[in-house]
Amino acid sequence: MPVPHVESLRADRWKLLNPTERLEALQELENELAKQRGDEPCLVVGKNLGENILGWHTRSNTGPDTIEINSELISRDQPYEAVETLFHEDRHAYQVYAIQHPGTHDNLGEVEDWRKNLDGGYITELVDYDYYRWQPVEADANQIARERTDELYLGMFQDSEKYPDYRAEKEQEISRDIEHAKMNIGDNYQEKARQKMIEKYQGKLKQQESESEDYYYGHGY
Asked: I need a labelling partner for 120 at 20 to 30 A (CA). Which of 50, 131, 133, 208 fits?
């Protein structure tokens, strides 16, 4: 599906907006993305999440899901990281929707991995960054967010002034993540992260059988 056109997310327009207006622009993008998948939009809020967390998607059983965007990103005069974070967290919302609505996503194997990943198999960054970064839901969300941000700023907006520098930094970051993962968990790092996730999921199943615990979704970026 095409990336929605939200004029306020252009770099030259964004820098003229106050924080409230910037959040409104991000909410408009989320509204359109949710409409594309046939889902209720998440509520987009700005929050001080600390320097190591860019955003967070949280499931709700009583109302709309929430996407928190680090307020530091919203305060910047360039929109790129805030928008890419929105795309990332919205992808988590899509993953949940695809699990709950079979047939939404055409790759059934991916959906099954997402289900296990989000239902007890989620690996937090504090446990091991490489496994966190390359587990199925995070690898997918990172990839889709990167593609959609390029589509918006290189394609739709044709931003050739500042976006290429941001893009180069993100590509270098991805290269560093890959090299770090290869060094620490091997060349087949993504499959190893997937297997680690499955091991954790299976362990949670055993724990659930004995304790009947409930689990919820909450995933940072």
From this structure: 50
pLDDT tens, 21-61?
999 999 999 999 999 999 999 999 999 998 889 999 999 88
Contacts of 123 (CB under 8 A, 6+ apart): 131, 132, 135, 193, 196, 197, 200
The whole model's pTM is what?
Answer: 0.92
Give the chain's domain count.
1
Query: In which band, very low, low, confident or very high, does the pLDDT at 98 lie, cut at 50, 70 and 90?
Result: very high
Are 24 and 13 in contact by the 8 Å Cβ rule? The answer is no
CB 135 within 8 A of CB 122: yes
**Residue 157 identity:** F
N-terminal to C-terminal alpha carbon distance within the chain: 23
- CA quadruple 97, 68, 9, 150: dihedral sign: negative
DSSP secondary structure string for all residues of 42-81:
PEEEEE---TT--EEEE--SSS--EEEEEHHHHHSSS-HH
Q: Please tell me the distance from the alpha carbon of residue 107 to that of residue 105, in angstroms, as a whole number.
A: 6
Is residue 107 domain-resident?
A: yes
**What is the chain's length?**
221
Structural domain span for residue 73: 7-220
User: Which residue intervals of the chain are DSSP H helices?
Assistant: 11-14, 19-37, 71-75, 80-100, 108-118, 129-134, 136-150, 163-185, 189-211
